[in-house]
Amino acid sequence: MTNSNDMPLAAKPINRAAHRRTDEAWLETAIQNDTALILMLRAGDPFVTPEGGLYWFGPEALRISPGSPRLFLGEDKTGAPVFAMELPAKFDLAGSLIAGAGEFLDFRQASARMPDMDANCASTARSLFLWHQSHSHCAKCGGQNGIVEAGWKAQCAMCGTEHFPRTDPVAIMLAVKDGRALIGRQKFWPAGFMSCLAGFCEPGETIEQAASRELFEEAGIHCDPSRAEYVACQPWPYPSSLMMGFILPADSDEITIDPNELESARWVTREEMRDIINGKHAELFCPPATAIAHHIMKVWAFRND
């Protein structure tokens, strides 16, 4: 059975220790403690070892880029404090104190190679840093926001309005009918790459209603949201979404795509889906196991109903 707690980027989370976020004296002492674990990002990409995991720094990280924004992510199972730092986009690795120790790697590539806890910490840090970058000014008065509560809140310096990190709910779904499932592709994807359909939840609707609406808008397929089967969810830091996966029995199978959303869509049998997942299909391939789409497709392909 698919479980959200085992989903890549969500598995093996640390204790967020939220009660520490407002204790500035404790945080300052903790990040300088020899037990501190600090990960680094640059433009959303993590600094990784040649073996593929995160390069975990101690308090020496504070000397690498003094003044860089930092977050308190929580405590690991030993109680060690875990932090993240975002280095400037123009940070020159070659001329730095950490030259030769590792590399900044594209997050998608890096996350596929990381142990579960590393991937969860890096994903959380990426989402938070990207949110702060896009919310540097107050939506109420336009004033400058400051990072507070160890990175888990922003507050306007002018009017005092508090802003909290945003997570966007996204429905990602597989319509199924008569032993076939609907997959589609966007025009900028590599040739042969196909996946589940997906879309953002809108105000005033449930996530099941969003899944049904998006299937009709993108592919012309009618589904009853009351029949939606929940599979699992996954935090997705591009920049910060919660992907909620569903399988929906379809009431129709005639495809009418919205060319603004999809380049093409097609129905595939279970046998074809198994070949796609196993990399044996002659022309099609799907998202890797780091993405929830892969798991939704796999759940349907390898069961009998």
UniProtKB/TrEMBL annotation:
Pfam short name (any one): NUDIX-like
Cofactor needs: Zn(2+); Mg(2+)
Substrates-to-products reaction catalysed: a 5'-end NAD(+)-phospho-ribonucleoside in mRNA + H2O = a 5'-end phospho-adenosine-phospho-ribonucleoside in mRNA + beta-nicotinamide D-ribonucleotide + 2 H(+)
E.C. no: 3.6.1.22
UniProt record, GO biological process: NAD+ catabolic process; NADP+ catabolic process
Native species: Hyphomonas neptunium (strain ATCC 15444)
One GO term describing the cellular component: cytosol
InterPro entries: NAD-cap_RNA_hydrolase_NudC (IPR050241), NADH_PPase-like_N (IPR015375), NudC-like_C (IPR049734), NUDIX_hydrolase-like_dom_sf (IPR015797), NUDIX_hydrolase_CS (IPR020084), NUDIX_hydrolase_dom (IPR000086), Znr_NADH_PPase (IPR015376)
Source superkingdom: Bacteria
Keywords: Hydrolase, Magnesium, Metal-binding, NAD
Family to which this protein belongs: Belongs to the Nudix hydrolase family. NudC subfamily.
Name of protein: NAD(+) diphosphatase
Keyword Metal-binding found: yes
GO molecular function: metal ion binding; NADH pyrophosphatase activity
Domain Nudix hydrolase, residue spans: 165-291
